[in-house]
Design a protein that fits this description.
It is a single chain. By secondary structure, the protein is an all-alpha fold. It has two domains: 92 residues, Helicase, Ruva Protein, domain 3 (Orthogonal Bundle), CATH 1.10.8; 64 residues, no CATH class. 7% of the residues are buried. Helix 1 crosses helix 2. The radius of gyration is 35 Å and the shape is elongated.
């Protein structure tokens, strides 16, 4: 008798937790969809749908919730939006075709800028192969400073 009560309680806990997971995952799916699309406000706010607070975005969220409840996937809803509004409705450019340059260009510019900064710094320091740099041998420097130090010390009156 005691074992059946424990098993029944355990079954109820598992059943309740599974129901909560599905509600949480449905909210996460809607958030993923909102992150993937831009808001199509009348005032052209230019915000990602999840960040927009206008009346149009609330209506769009409700529409997307109904679509997700009807069994459509995120990819299907995104495709429907792209077909209706064009690729400008996407919050990030696609990763193929000409849009690939939007993904690659920042990294290429960063690497090229790094090489440019390195070249400028080497030119400023004078370590460039063809550049003129003044080289003084270490003994000459040491003799110069030793003589100056001796003169300074001789000039101090005690």
């Amino acid at each position: 008798m005691q074992t059946s009560k424990v098993l029944m309680g355990l079954f109820v806990l598992v059943w309740i937790s599974m129901g909560q997971v599905s509600v949480v995952s449905a909210g996460a799916v809607l958030q993923d969809l909102e992150n993937a699309l831009m808001c199509k406000c009348d005032d052209k706010c230019g915000k990602v749908l999840i960040n927009c607070t206008c009346a149009t975005s609330d209506k769009t969220r409700a529409k997307f919730s109904k679509m997700l409840d009807s069994g459509l996937t995120i990819e299907q809803i995104i495709k429907m939006q792209v077909d209706e509004y064009g690729e400008t409705v996407l919050s990030a450019p696609t990763k193929f075709g000409f849009n690939l340059t939007a993904w690659v260009t920042p990294f290429v510019a960063l690497i090229a800028g790094g090489f440019g900064v390195r070249k400028v710094l080497l030119a400023w320091v004078g370590k460039k192969d063809g550049g003129e740099s003044i080289e003084v041998s270490e003994p000459e420097i040491s003799e110069k400073y030793s003589k100056r130090l001796k003169d300074e010390l001789d000039g101090i009156e005690l």
